[in-house]
């Protein structure tokens, strides 16, 4: 089967090859060549490491093959959550939001910070939820890092899904349930508000 370009992100081109997905981190010609190579290799490695670790905790595509600039993983034959979240039934919506909270909790409990938790980096295949795009992930057991991870998610909901954000957040927060991180989130948020006043 011929390769089919399915997405062209900021850093990479993504192709479908039958049941496989190829994520190829592409050259950025505005970067100095050696720096560009180092950065692409680094982000690729970081994503592979996180995907492999997360695979034992939540649903993520399985990594099949890797080289310096490419990851070959399972192709998820589904939809990006951003595109379908508003069309879900009440029951589906509640179940997806609960899963998001539980997935983030499972990652954080093992010190894995996703780094870019948005509905564009989540996919739905039937009732199965997958997290993707771990290129900005980090390993940290710090409460602050976890709170910032949640803050990114909450902001993404507010900006992309204003009408359902509050309802979604209530379910996600309850499922997540790590009290000290949720407390720190309030501090992170108040910091954000102070900055806005300046
Ligand atoms: N395993 C997969 N199976 C099916 N589709 C995928 C898979 N991984 C990524 N995609 C599709 O490719 C898009 C981009 O993937 P990803 O977010 O990993 O790349 P990216 O270069 O970081 O993109 P962006 O800069 O837009 O975030 C996703 O939104 C999704 O539509
Ligand atoms: Mg992405």
What characteristics describe this protein?
single chain, 198 residues, alpha+beta, Phosphorylase Kinase, domain 1, 2 domains, 3-stranded antiparallel β-sheet, binds adenosine-5'-triphosphate, binds magnesium ion
Structure description:
The protein is an alpha+beta fold and 198 residues long. The chain has two domains: 4-74, Phosphorylase Kinase, domain 1 (2-Layer Sandwich); 79-197, Transferase(Phosphotransferase), domain 1 (Orthogonal Bundle), CATH 1.10.510. Helices cover 50% and strands 20% of the residues. It has six helices and ten strands; from the N terminus they run βββαβββααββββααα. It has helices at 33-55, 81-84, 90-109, 143-160, 162-176, 179-197, and strands spanning 4-8, 12-17, 20-25, 63-66, 70-74, 79-80, 112-113, 122-125, 128-131, 138-139. The strands form three sheets. The protein has a five-stranded antiparallel β-sheet, with helices on one face. The chain has a three-stranded antiparallel β-sheet with strand order 6-8-9. The protein has a two-stranded antiparallel sheet with strand order 7-10. A hairpin with a 2-residue loop joins β8 (122-125) and β9 (128-131). α4 runs antiparallel to α5 and α4 packs across α6 (179-197). The longest helix has 23 residues, at 33-55. The radius of gyration is 17 Å and the shape is globular. Bound molecules: adenosine-5'-triphosphate and magnesium ion (MG). Adenosine-5'-triphosphate binds next to β1, β2, β3 and β5. Residues 6-7, 9-12, 14, 21, 23, 61, 73-76, 80, 120-121, 132-133, 135 line the site of adenosine-5'-triphosphate (ATP).
């Amino acid at each position: 089967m011929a390769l089919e370009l399915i997405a062209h992100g900021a850093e990479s081109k993504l192709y479908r090859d039958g049941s496989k997905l190829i994520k190829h981190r592409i050259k950025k010609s505005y970067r100095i060549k050696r720096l560009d190579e180092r950065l692409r290799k680094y982000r690729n490695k970081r994503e592979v490491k996180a995907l492999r670790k997360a695979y034992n905790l939540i649903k993520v595509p399985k990594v099949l093959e890797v080289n310096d600039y490419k990851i070959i993983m399972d192709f998820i034959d589904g939809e990006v959550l951003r595109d379908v979240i508003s069309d879900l039934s009440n029951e589906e919506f509640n179940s997806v939001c609960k899963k998001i909270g539980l997935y983030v909790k499972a990652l954080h409990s093992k010190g894995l910070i996703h780094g870019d938790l948005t509905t564009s980096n989540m996919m739905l295949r039937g009732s199965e939820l997958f997290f993707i795009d771990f290129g900005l992930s980090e390993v940290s057991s710090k409460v602050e890092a976890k709170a910032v991870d949640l803050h990114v998610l909450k902001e993404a909901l507010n900006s992309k899904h204003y009408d359902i954000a509050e309802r979604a957040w209530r379910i996600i927060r309850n499922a997540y349930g790590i009290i000290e991180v949720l407390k720190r989130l309030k501090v992170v948020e108040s910091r954000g508000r102070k900055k806005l006043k300046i």
